[in-house]
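Listing S7. Sequence submitted for prediction.
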Amino acid sequence: MENYRLAGEFTLQSYERIFTNVMYWKALRNSLLLSLKVVAVTTLIAYPLAMVLNYAVPKRWRNFFLVLIIAPFWTSYLIRAYSWFIVLGNTGIINTVLKSLGFIEQPVQILYTNTATTIGLVHYLLPLMTLNLYTTLENIDPKLLEAAGDLGANRIKSFWHVILPLSSGGLCNSLMFCFILAFADFISPATLGGQLERVFPQLIVDAVQWNVDWPLAAALSMVMVFAILGVLILISLFRNIGNLENGGSGK
């Protein structure tokens, strides 16, 4: 860079800085661990929620609950992230309730931690995964569950041998989609997580906004893309193995 403009020939100097600096490796590790945790928590909540919505809620009420799930998207993601300050802050709802009940004497530090970042990302991704899984479950032929029941399968066996295999394709697609958004997000880590554990996208923002180092930002972006591709390939392999074991029923 010369006078804030790209100059000179192509060089791998930026990649050398990334691969030889522990700070970048630590940020990459933080992003991977955070994204995997967020995807796991979101899946554990979204899958049961989608099942309840599809199999337990009467059809006449489903549209109402679908609107409730979509409702958070009517506001800005940044506003939703900042709204967690009211809940997670030292004088927020959680600490106020715990203190009034006598469980704590001093406020519990939740805001500006990895936990707060996880909560913000799960809140952001939960409607997306729930809607995707609901659509997948809705397309499963109910006659297959009736046949499983006629053959003596209880609800648990019907889930493991019918619902889960047939929804594995939609589940893997949801995992991919949510992982990409969680890994590339910097709003929740910056607003709710603070600067204690920096994630990879924050370094890219810093390289562009504060250091005006476009070559470094481009190199960091490429590393992030390849990291995401690596995880997506692993998920695709898992889906393909599941399809083979179930005779292709997971597609």
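Caption to Listing S7: primary sequence and predicted structure tokens for the chain studied. The longest helix spans residues 22-56. The chain has one domain: 13-245.
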